[in-house]
Amino acid sequence: MSLVRKLAGLVGFLLVWEAAARLGLVDTRVLPPPSEVLVRFALLGTEPRFVAGAISTVLSWFIALLCATVVGVASGLLLGSVPLVRLISTPIVEFLRPLPAVALIPLAIALFGTDAQTKITLAAFAATWPILLNTSYALGEVDPRLLETARCFRVSRWRRLTGVTLPSIGPFVVTGIRISASITLIAIVGTEFLAGGSIGLGQYAFLQGTSGGRMDVVLAATVFAGLFGCVVNAGFLAVQRRWVSWGSGEVAA
């Protein structure tokens, strides 16, 4: 029933949008009707520039999220398990965490140029923090009785980490990765749009909108990015419910 309601809301929104465009309430050169956008979306797969841009964006997204996951989990485990490290690093983390990735585009271009390295680095930077903070926070939520029991049975530190700690923090880590997946996509497309020089969905939409005035193509590419984000989010939710459903996985503030 909830799915039907969500679809009904989406269909209603599209109908209102279509009616507003057809009745001349909005400028169709700026906001074309959804029927035209959906037709253009269906034809995107036949455009080599879009296909190349989509592959570049998705591949860069995967690499950036993988890097953010490795760095975020490792750093979170270190900060959450060593109080002195957490005390020393907290001011640095709190300073760097709110920095918008797009504000660092000039620095990244100076270091890496306008190649894919720039968007991957900035996206990984932006996506690391939710994973790091959730991992660090989750260590404080591990049941101390489990750890004490493991110590009583003289379980090695490595076995405690792999058999007690990591399974306990799993829901939090997956939640952090799921949040970071969306952040990564936003940072990748935003950097492509603003930095230029590198192929991708952001650069494709920018060129179509500024050079060709094809807002239907721009919106079609946006629909693709939105659908990709929805699929990724649904995938992580499925993983969380299937394999790490024993914890709440609340996001650390």
UniProtKB/TrEMBL annotation:
The family this protein is said to belong to: Belongs to the binding-protein-dependent transport system permease family.
Every ABC transmembrane type-1 domain range: 54-236
Entry protein name: ABC transporter permease
PROSITE patterns, sorted: ABC_TM1
Organism: Kutzneria chonburiensis
CDD domains listed in its UniProt record: TM_PBP2
TM region positions: 58-83, 95-114, 185-206, 218-239
Highest taxon listed in the record's lineage: Bacteria
